[in-house]
Amino acid sequence: MDSNLKIVGIIGGLSHESSDDYSKGIHVLVNKALGGLNNAELIQYDVNFAEIRKDMLGNQWGKIGHYLGDVAESLTMIGAQYVAVASDTAHKIAPDIEDCIGKDRFLHIADCIGQRCIREIDQKRALCPELYGPNEPKRVLLLGTMETMTGSFLHARLEGYKLAIYTPDRTNMQLLDNYVSNELYHNIILEETQKWYLGMIKDMLSQNPVDAIILGCTELSLLYDEFNLAHRLEVLEANGDRPFAVIDSKQAHIIGIAQACLGQWKGSD
User: Which of 14, 80, 147, 208 lies most in the core, judged by the most C-beta atoms within 10 Å?
Assistant: First the structure.
């Protein structure tokens, strides 16, 4: 078959509650760009999250890296020109995958988040430039699992985009991690969890206004998607008079993968 589209392999199932959304979102964006009956050319391999999660809790990251590296390599062997992992936390072993397939072929979620943050923050700041000093840093609140919020694997990559990263205090990080593990991984959405989540973010923004909130866990949009979280926080005047963006890592990744399918992707230098 003749096609100018690039083939992307996606490692999903981490958890399937989030990765189930990937193919639809990517197909929609590719079709929007090309029209007609065009859609993306994808190969998706869903792993059994129960086994991966057991190794995560056992701190067996080397084992996870070896396994997912093998999966990524197998995807390239059957035609994938790029590979993505549909999970923020699993990017802790991104170097293992890059060692197997090469850095240029791995679509790192932090690059997708960072590029989208810069675009949207610049757009927001342009609306009221008088509120910002000439050298004022771009501040972002990073939310996710404990591993993501405390580890360097997303932090360091995002800091490469000149973003100043804030995270909740240790108690709230642990609570958020518990809610993700015990509820969102199982598609359980509780009103009391949503109320706590909204209040926790509001309290953080009232002390440290930010330019963007990063939903750095692909399940967090189950609580509130980008639009609804931004709207609720704006009603509460949580960030004072400063505009802010909400960046869902899953949607940012989907956008980046669609760009790769279209041959338009440019990762970090």
Answer: 14
170: pLDDT confidence band, cut at 50, 70 and 90? very high
Find where tokens 């690039």 sit.
6
183 burial via Cβ count (<10 Å: 0-12, 13-18, 19+): middle
* Residue 102 to residue 73: CA distance in whole angstroms: 10
Residue from 101, 93, 97 nearest 62 by CA: 93
Check residue 5 and report its DSSP letter: P
Structure tokens at 78: 């059957």
Cα distance between residue 179 and residue 232, in whole Å: 20
Q: 177 Cβ partners below 8 Å, 6+ apart?
A: 145, 146, 149
Taking the model in full, what pTM does it have?
Answer: 0.95
What mean pLDDT comes out for the span 130-159? 95
Token duo for residue 45: 């391999």
Q: Which residue has the higher pLDDT, 143 or 3?
A: 143
- Helical ranges in 146-225 per DSSP H: 146-150, 155-159, 170-182, 191-207
CB 222 within 8 Å of CB 44:
no
Distance CA 90, CA 68 (A): 9
Residue 235 tokens read as 């009603």
* Single-letter residue type at 238: A
Across the range 14-22, mean pLDDT stands at 91
β-bridge mates for residue 98, sequence order: none
What DSSP assignment string belongs to 102-152? -GGGB--HHHHHHHHHHHHHHHHHHH-GGGS-TT--EEEEEES-HHHHHSS
Nearest to 257 by CA among 96, 40, 38, 34: 40
Q: What's the CA gap between 194 and 179, in Å, rounded?
A: 10
Q: How confident is the model at residue 269 (pLDDT cuts 50, 70, 90)?
A: low
